[in-house]
Write a structure and sequence with these properties.
Elements (H helix, E strand, L loop, with lengths): L19 E2 L17 E2 L9 H4 L5 E6 L2 E7 L5 E7 L2 E10 L5 E4 L4 E2 L2 H10 L2
Parallel strand pairs: 1-2
Antiparallel strand pairs: 3-4, 4-5, 5-6, 6-7, 7-8
Amino acid sequence: MTGEPTSEPSGALPSHLRPVDDTPVHTHDLPDTPTRDRSIAARAWVEAPAALLALDDARYLRRIGPWLLWRAGDARGPATYWTCLADDLGRQHTFELLADGTGSGDGPEHHHERFRTWKEDLRDHA
């Protein structure tokens, strides 16, 4: 034991230190919760839409209800958060998070200036 505090559970790595996993994965195999030991690359997703692949180095984050959430960029910004419905890959939304913490994006029902409300819109509207 080093005595240093950690914010990650045992065996988990901070997102920027997780190795990229390029193992092909299908939509139904994307996990509900975040992977803590690796990052699933968008290019590994067999059914990945072109809009997601066009983002620079996007990584899978998690499901929010029926939505698949991906991020290209740093968790604290700048980053593009991209999502689509797991059963309708054509229903897509993005949220742009800037380095200063401000952001903007359209959700299923509303335009948002806060990332939290954008995610709540996803959660509440399939």
